[in-house]
Each structure stands twice: as structure tokens, then as C-alpha cells.
Amino acid sequence: MGARPKKIVELSTKHRSKAETDRREYEQSLITSSGTDLDDVRASQFVNTTAGKEYRRVLKRLREETGVIGNLNKSDLINYANSYGRYMDLVKECRKKSFTYLIDTENGPKPNPIIRMMDEARRDMAESSRRLGMTLDGQLKTAAAKADRQEAEMEQKFGVI
Q1: Is residue 133 part of a domain?
Q2: Does 5 fall in a domain?
Q3: 37: which of 21, 42, 71, 75 fits an S-S bond (Cβ 3.0–4.6 Å)?
Q4: For the chain, how long is the longest CA-to-CA vector?
Q5: CB-based contact 80:38 (threshold 8 Å)
Q6: Alpha-carbon span 22 to 18, nearest angstrom
Q7: pTM higher than 0.85, yes or no?
Q8: What is the pLDDT of residues 122-156, one digit of tens each?
């Protein structure tokens, strides 16, 4: 059995000694990047303009809310944006009046392939968003860590209230 995946120091709730915390922060600083590669993405890497807009929107939010996004997240972020772009195109197809959920084939009625493609795009978005910490669970962990940090800063300035 493998070890549990490590959490970033800000999201960890385990009580560690000062030395352990310093060591984890140092390890984290070694892999933290400026994220400049995230800004250097060509339009040709996206399946459509919707994907490009979603990429920029999510990148901005991740930088503002978590602050823990780097160059290693680039492929997950591009994959998320492209999955989102594909999904939105498929939603437009479903909204057309000519769309039917079942299509007639030689072997009888079958589900429209667009439904399967939408499900694949949704699964790809979910997997990429999980890796990027965009799930509700990830957001709650980030919010709890921010609240704990703010409380600690207030206690340090004003003492225990």
C-alpha cells in the first residue's frame, strides 16, 4: 500500500512541530513555480473560444482563491477548459429543435451519441477539476485554512480574545 498523498501546509490540519512545519514549507517551496507558463498558452491549444475564455477565468480564480497553482497544473487546466468547451458545444446541440434522445438505426432505436460524448466531457471536467482543487471539498479545505490563518494572525496581534 502506498502512502497517503501529501497536502500543502496551508491545508493540513495535522499538528506538527515547528521543525516539521518548516521542513514541509521548504519542500513545498522547492516545487512552487511562478506559473508564468500558465499565461503562455496559444489559442490553438483550445478546441474553441469558449475553452479559451474558461481557461483564463479559472486561472484567475485559482490564483486569487488558492494561490497554489503552478506550471505543473498547465495540462490539467487546459484539459478542464477543453472539456468545458466541448461540453458547452454539445449542450447547444441538445437545445436544437431537431435533437432527439433516441435515434433510429437498423438494429432499432439507440441513444444519441451526443449524450455519451457529453458524459465523457463531464467526466473529464470532473477529473481535472478534482486535480486542480476546484471541487467543493477542495474549496472548503482552502476556506478553512484561510480562516485558521486569519485567526492565528489576529491572535498574534491582539492576543487570545
Answers
A1: yes
A2: no
A3: 71
A4: 77
A5: no
A6: 6
A7: no
A8: 999 999 988 887 877 766 776 676 777 777 778 88
Domain count, the chain: 1
Contact 69, 35 (CB under 8 A): yes
Contact 90, 121 (CB under 8 A): yes
Is residue 119 in a domain? yes
81 is in which domain, residue-wise?
A: 22-138
Is there a domain that residue 34 lies in? yes
Burial of 121 (0-12, 13-18, 19+ CB in 10 A): buried
Residue 18 cell numbers, joined: 515547528
Rounded to whole angstroms, the Cα distance separating 68 from 74 reads 12
List, as one string, the DSSP characters of 84-141.
HHHHHHHHHHHHSTT--SEEEETTEEEE-HHHHHHHHHHHHHHHHHHHHT-SHHHHHH
Q: Are the CB atoms for 117 and 86 separated by under 8 Å?
A: yes
